[in-house]
Amino acid sequence: MAQLIDGKQLSNQVLQEVASEVEQLRAEHDVVPTLAVVLVGEDPASQVYVRNKVKRAKETGMGSIEHRLGTATTQGDLNQLIDQLNNDPQVHGILVQLPLPSHLDEEQVIAAINPAKDVDGFHPVNVGALAAGQASLVPCTPQGCMIMLRQVHPDLSGKNAVVVGRSNIVGKPMAALLLQANCTVTIAHSRTKDIESLCRNADIVIAAAGRMELINADWIRPGATVIDVGINAIEVDGKRKLVGDVAFDSVSEIAGAITPVPGGVGPMTIACLLLNTTRAARRQLA
Ligand code: NDP
């Protein structure tokens, strides 16, 4: 049976580190690291994510500001708010919850955020810095995956890693971080041929396709480490349930280590968002 990489427990450790950094910034510099969260529209999943982020931020002693805007918000209104937050010295991190309603241009919104306050790590300046191996604000989900991987592999050097998914928010930054850690990285996507055998050769498989239980035991080499980023909502007996991109029951019998869904990558993502906010606050001091 695979070792379970417990995201809840690990995220609590990260949140404790965040809380002590918040305390240090307050004691040494009279600064309260503050995260501004912007939510546009009524998407129920986004409302839950925002609520959890704000709740956790408060638990660490961090400041948090919520801006809830109606679905009819224009690009101009949103840009104006971002401008205001960019120029507010009390705000250290800005997060615009995605997806935005379809009439709004996400790329434009991301580009409008000051890269120094871009705690999601999606701004082209931060994306470029990560690709070039320079210090940057790193996207939260892949950052959380790296912390989880290091529990099992303190030294990732020379490992064969396959990342299933090539999105800008998960797959691509994940591959960049693994490469920085000296893994040999393959990125697979919906057009990849014989993805199963690529995965079967991997020491590490990161599943970020958004396809329920795509990856089963036949895809996994005995002893491999499997990180499941996927979050897929299904209904079982009229109740909503979350499942990952990995068929947990069968894969956990063959893998060496595995993350659960829920309770895996999800909590780590929020913890890394708050970690990024303290990092942004410290850099802004400098
Ligand atoms: P996207 O839909 O943006 O990207 C999915 C990627 O998976 C694409 O690159 C796509 O390929 C690839 N893909 C889709 N189907 C297959 C397939 N059958 N075989 C191989 N590759 C495939 O999703 P995200 O990256 O935003 O998110 C991925 C998953 O992670 C989702 O379930 C999402 O909910 C979850 N997620 C979880 C987070 C957490 O905190 N735990 C945070 C963010 C996301 P192509 O490019 O060719 O279309």
Question: What CATH first level of the largest domain would be assigned?
Answer: Alpha Beta
Order of strands across the main sheet: 1-11-8-7-5-6
Distance between the termini: 48 Å
Q: Give the CATH H-level superfamily of the largest domain.
A: NAD(P)-binding Rossmann-like Domain
Tell me the overall shape: globular
Strand portion:
15-25%
Q: Biggest sheet: strands, sense, closure?
A: 6 strands, parallel
Total domains: 2
Order of helices and strands: EHEHEHEHHHEHEHEEEEHEH
Q: Do you know the CATH architecture of the largest domain?
A: 3-Layer(aba) Sandwich
Named once each, the bound ligands are: NADPH dihydro-nicotinamide-adenine-dinucleotide phosphate
In terms of structural class, how would the helical and strand content be classed? Answer: alpha/beta
Helical region count? Answer: 10
Strand segment tally: 11
> What is the CATH topology descriptor of the largest domain?
Rossmann fold
Mean pLDDT: 97
Low-pLDDT sequence parts: none
**Overall helicity:** 40-55%
Rg, Cα atoms, Å: 19 Å
Domain Tetrahydrofolate dehydrogenase/cyclohydrolase catalytic: 5-120
Function: Catalyzes the oxidation of 5,10-methylenetetrahydrofolate to 5,10-methenyltetrahydrofolate and then the hydrolysis of 5,10-methenyltetrahydrofolate to 10-formyltetrahydrofolate.
Keywords: Amino-acid biosynthesis, Histidine biosynthesis, Hydrolase, Methionine biosynthesis, Multifunctional enzyme, NADP, One-carbon metabolism, Oxidoreductase, Purine biosynthesis
Subunit structure: Homodimer.
